[in-house]
Amino acid sequence: MDVSMKDxxxxxxISTTTVSHVINRTRPVNPETEARVxxxxxxxxxxxxxxxxxxxSGSSRMIGVVISDLSNFFFTDVVLSIDSVLGAEGYSLVYxxxxxxxxRERNSIESLILQNVDGLIIAPVDRDCSYMNALIGDRCPCxxxxxxPEGFAGDRVLxxxxxxxxxxxxxxxxxxxxxxxxxxxxxxxxxxERIVGYRDALIGNGIxxxxxxxxTGTGRSQSLNDLKRxxxxxxxxxxxxxxxxxxxxxxxxxxxxxxxxxxKEMGLDIPGELGLICFDDAFxxxxxxxxxxxxxxxxxxxxxxxxxxxxxxxxxxxxxxxxHRIPTRLITRYSC
Length: 336
Hints:
Layout: H1 5-12, H2 16-24, H3 31-44, H4 50-53, E1 62-67, H5 73-88, E2 92-97, H6 102-114, E3 119-122, H7 132-135, E4 142-145, E5 155-159, H8 161-174, E6 180-184, H9 189-204, E7 214-216, H10 231-242, E8 247-250, H11 253-266, E9 275-279, E10 293-296, H12 299-314, E11 323-326, E12 329-331
Parallel strand pairs: 1-2, 1-3, 3-4, 4-5, 5-11, 6-7, 6-8, 8-9, 9-10
Antiparallel strand pairs: 10-12
C-alpha cells in the first residue's frame, strides 16, 4: 500500500502543510518538528511519487548537489562548473551545504531523494558513507568528488593530491628549506593523501619525517571572517614558535587563511624567515604580498568531469564505478 504525505502527517502528529515544508524546504520548521517528520518518513518508508512531481516525463530534471563546506572557495568553484554542464543539458540544481556535519548531510540527501532528484553529486563529510546504502540505494546514480567514500559504491572525481604536495615539498627542499611543516584544516581522506605526498618527498630526499610537524585542525565549518583566527592560526603559532619550522605547506586554502593571518600579525618575512606553499590556488593568493606559491586544483575540470560522469549514468551507462584523477599544477610565485 502506497504511503501518502497525509500518512506521514498523521504519524508525526502535524499538518500535511508542515510535512510539505520539511520535504520541499519552502519554510523553516522547528527542529524538533522536523525530526518527527523525518522519523515518520523513515518508519513509513515514504517516497515522493515521481509521477505526481512530473506527470509528463516521470523525471524531475533536478540534480542534488551536497557540498561539505560552503566557506571553502574550492567547493564554490566546482559547483559553478557542475551547474554550467548540467544546466546546458536542461537540468536544474538543488544545493545543500552539509557544513561538515554528518547528520546535516544525511538530512540533506534524504530531502533530495524525497524531491525525486534524478541524480546526486556529493562531497562527503566523512570517510564512512555506508549509511547511504539504505538512504540512496539504487534510487538514483551518485557521483562523489574531492573525498573518497567508503562503504558506498559510486563514481568519484579526485585531484592528484599526493603528487601535488610531493612536488611542492620538493620545491621547498630544492630552495634550501630543511624543516618543513604541514598544516591542514581537517584530517580526511583527501588531506591524508596530501600528507602522504609530503612524507614521500622527504623520504625521497633522505629526510626522516618528523610527525610533530604535521598538524591538522578540527575542520568545523566557519564564516570567512572567523577563519582569520581559526585553529589553524593557533597551529601555525605552534609550528613556528615551538617547533621552529622554516617552511610551511598549507593543505588547503582554509588552512592558509589562518596561517597567513598569523604570519601578517607577527610580521614574519616571507620567504626569508618562512617559506610558504598552499594547496588550492584561491584567487586571493596571487594578491598577497608576496604572492603565494600554490598547488592548483583544476576545480573547473573536477566539476565538469563529475557532471559528465553523472550524465552518462543518467543515459543508462552500466560500466563499473570509475575514479578519475584530475592533475594538479604547481604555480611558482614569490613565497618560497
